[in-house]
Amino acid sequence: MTTVKKFALLAVLGTLLGTTLAACNTMEGAGQDVQAGGRAIERGADNVQKKM
Fold first, then answer.
1. Where are the alpha helices (DSSP H) in 1-52?
2. If exposure means fewest CB atoms within 10 Å of the residue's CB, which of 28, 42, 47, 51 is most exposed?
């Protein structure tokens, strides 16, 4: 395999790895946002229940 082909293969693999890691971070952030929303709803429900 020539040096140019090795470099091209490494570039492609690096790009795929970077994209995969970025997607994981995005999904983790989305999960944290959903979790924070759930906590806010839970606090609101607790407040309503205390007023009853």
1. 3-51
2. 51
The tens-digit pLDDT sequence of the chain (52 residues) is: 678 888 888 888 777 777 766 666 677 777 888 888 888 888 888 888 888 8
Q: How far apart are CA 36 and CA 42, in angstroms?
A: 10
Q: Which residue has the tokens 């929303």?
A: 37
Which one-letter DSSP state was computed for residue 52? -
Query: Phi first, then psi: what are they for 33, rounded to 5°?
Result: -65, -45
